[in-house]
From TrEMBL:
Keywords: Glycosyltransferase, Transferase
Gene3D superfamilies according to UniProt: Glycogen Phosphorylase B
Chain ranges of the Glycosyltransferase subfamily 4-like N-terminal domain: 20-184
Protein species of origin: Leucobacter komagatae
Record's protein name: D-inositol 3-phosphate glycosyltransferase
Cited PANTHER family: SULFOQUINOVOSYL TRANSFERASE SQD2
Gene Ontology MF, one: hexosyltransferase activity
An annotated GO BP: carbohydrate derivative biosynthetic process
Pfam families documented for this protein: Glyco_trans_4_4
InterPro entries: Glyco_trans_4-like_N, Glycosyltransferase_grp1
Length: 382
């Protein structure tokens, strides 16, 4: 089969979507299918390493925001509109794999219909729910939901990262064909035994920090707690980054902020940490989500403190060696930090082995390809 993966974010830009799609491209190629990735040009200073990949990558110029990200509807359109014409006049493919946002899903469905090509759509999260949680006007939420429904319904198959996302997709688009494939991390990169970064005892929050994640709870816990010389490190980027810096300054919390780094360096920070941190603010529209930053930590052999609702709490309850799950409250987080900093016995190998067996991205990619191939192919026009 001839595949094309359509995405406005891809390696070397560090993100869960980048890693997930690169693993899928590798799996498709290893299964002796033809695959090409249509994505964006990296920011200045980032090396794509495309020549070393076992598949083709075509990169389009794109508008980025002031922070250097393809984020915002003008930026999305700068990718989506040229992509539509690439689908329309480019090589004929047997299957497209489309990564959100919903605007890309709309243009991909339109282009795919004109070329009579089926597409698979990645259901990594629910953008309309996220819009609602940030207080977007009602007409914006309705528009995003309509675009999402259009993308879901037209897909050959929607690939959901967990059962909670799958259930929500079925509520929004009852006619969509949804398969849960799970989510994971590259356990070759996020693995124990390599270089460690960071000094002394510290907790690390890696990856995106947006308002709906409520990562401020960790800064408040550090500001109010007494953890000796232990510090908090934020490693990444996100829409809440500046407000988190401001909060740390206001509270005088021992927090260091480090901008996004390549995956190999992120893994080194995780290996050096006593514990990593992840959170979801209750009622933000993401109660069903499972933060992928937790998978990266476990792959590196580092336990996690997770604050918030959702399926992550059950996994931590069933596997105490992986860390601690608590309510999204300062007192609960502070107590969990005290408990985790007091741990003297390392469980690195046990945690890493669990990750290899349960959240390996290569296994997720194999399930994704299986779901695409095993679903009877027919153009969906509903």
């Amino acid at each position: 089969m001839r595949f094309a993966i359509l995405t406005r974010i891809f390696e070397p830009e560090p993100s869960a979507a980048s890693f997930r799609l690169a693993a899928l491209a590798e799996t498709i190629s290893a299964s002796r299918h033809d695959v090409e990735v249509l994505t964006v040009k990296p920011v200045a200073g980032q090396h794509s390493n495309d020549e070393a990949r076992p598949y083709r990558v075509r990169r389009l110029p794109v508008l980025r925001d002031s922070a250097g990200y393809v984020r915002g509807y003008v930026q999305y359109m700068s990718f989506d509109i040229p992509l539509f014409f690439r689908i329309l006049f480019g090589r004929k493919r047997d299957m497209l794999v489309v990564e959100p946002p919903p605007t890309t899903g709309v243009f991909a469905r339109l282009g795919a219909a004109l070329r009579r090509t089926p597409y698979a759509y990645y259901g990594a999260d629910i953008w309309s729910d996220a819009s609602a949680s940030t207080g977007a006007p009602g007409f914006v939420v309705k528009t995003v939901r309509a675009m999402e429904r259009f993308a879901f319904t037209g897909a050959h198959v929607v690939l959901a990262v967990n059962d909670g996302v799958a259930d929500r997709i079925r509520e929004i688009a009852p006619k969509a064909h949804v398969v849960t494939i799970g989510n994971g991390v590259n356990t070759r990169v996020f693995a124990p035994g390599g270089t460690e970064l960071g000094e002394g005892t510290f907790a690390v929050y890696t990856g995106t920090a947006s308002e709906w994640q409520g990562a401020d709870v960790f800064i408040r816990a550090f500001a109010e707690g007494d953890f000796g010389d232990a510090k908090l490190v934020f490693l990444g980027q996100g829409s809440a980054w500046s407000s988190l810096k401001q909060l740390a300054d206001e509270l005088g919390a021992p927090v260091r902020f480090v901008d996004s780094v390549p995956p190999e360096q992120a893994a080194a920070w995780l290996r050096g940490a006593a514990v990593s941190l992840a959170s979801i603010a209750p009622g933000s529209g993401y109660d069903f989500a499972f933060p992928t930053k937790m998978f990266a930590s476990w792959g590196s052999g580092t336990p996690v403190i997770y604050a918030g609702p959702g399926p992550a709490r059950a996994v931590l309850s069933e596997n105490p060696v992986l860390g601690i799950g608590v309510e999204h409250e300062v007192d609960a987080v502070r107590a969990a930090l005290v408990q985790q900093f007091a741990v003297t016995q390392s469980h690195t190998d046990e945690i890493s082995l669990w990750a290899q067996q349960n959240v390996s991205l290569s296994s997720v990619a194999e399930r994704a390809l299986g779901a695409i191939i095993d679903t009877p192919t027919k153009l969906r026009t509903r």
